[in-house]
Amino acid sequence: MAKTDEKVNDTSALGYEQARDELVEVVRRLEAGGTSLEESLALWERGEELAKVCRRWLEGARARLDAALADSGTEDAEGRDAGGRTGDTGADGD
Fold it and tell me: Which spans of this chain does the record mark as coiled coil (predicted)?
């Protein structure tokens, strides 16, 4: 159980994929059963921490996407085309 306790305090350094993979393993162990009440509670707590880490990563990704989409919308409002060019290139070559 000491290993699980150590991991609870070490979630800040986890990337999204690491946290997700470990969360999947925690869920698998809980669903399989056969653990003591104390170990089950420790696993549950670890799962909650891992879920928070995943949620923070996903919220950060959403914020980045929203910012990128907002920037893209601003560019369109300024009259830029998909290539970032402004103004009318017209068919007459001017």
Answer: none
